[in-house]
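Example 3.2
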Amino acid sequence: MEKETLKAYVITDLTAELAVENMDSEYGEDDYAELDGHDLTDYEPSIRECIEKEKESLDDGGNLAPYIDESLLGLRENVLRIEPDVVVYEGKLCGCAIVELKQELSERDWNSLLDYISGQYSDGWGEGFEQRDISVADGILNVHFWQPDQRYPIVLDALPGQAPTVPQQAQKPKMRLIGQDGNIFSILGRASRLLRQNGQGKQAEEMFRRVQESGDYYKALNIISEYVQTELSAPEKGDTAPRTQKDRQER
C-alpha cells in the first residue's frame, strides 16, 4: 500500500499590472493600472489557464522541488512536489504553492522551504511567469508572485472546504520566547509552524489574523501565547508541579 503523503498550501500576495486596451473598462482611459489581490479575483480563470500552460512547458509538470539545492538535504528528501497555483483566500486572489511532503518538516526545514519558494517567485519560476502577457477583456495582464514588501506567508493544512491531511490535536505545543529572536514576525512564524506540526492549521490561521489586527507588540505576544505554551501562557492542567510536603507545611 502506498504511503499517504502530506500537503501544505503556502499562501502569498499577488499583484499585477494591467495594460488597458478597452477604454470601456472600469479603469477608464488610464493606459496602465496596478492591481492587487482583490482586483485580480475577476481574472482568476485567465491567470490559472496561463499557469497551467506554463507548467506544461516545463519538466515534470512544473514541479519545482527537484531544483532545491543539494545542500538542503532535509528538503530534498521530504519535499516531493512544489506546484505554483492561485486560490481565492479571504476575498483576494493569492499565490498558492501546493507542497507535497513525505513527512512533516522540522522548523529549520520549514524556514528553508519558505525561503526557497520566495526565491523561486523572485528570480526563478515567478520571474519567467511575470513576463507572460495574459490577455483579458480589459487588456494585457502581467502577474507578480513576488512582492518587495511581502508579508510572512500563511501556510494551511487544507484549503477552505477541504479536510486537513494531519489529524487535529488539542494540546498546545510549547515554544520558548526567552533567548530567541524577538521580532514579532519571527515569533509568529515559529508559532504557526508548531501549530501546523501539531495538526492545528485552523488555529494557526486564526492566530495569524488576530496578531495582524492587534497592532501592538505586547498584545500580539499575548495572543500567540493563547495558542502555543510560552512563558506568558497560563499553566495548562497538569503542567504545574505538585507541591512538596515542605511547601504544604509552609502554607
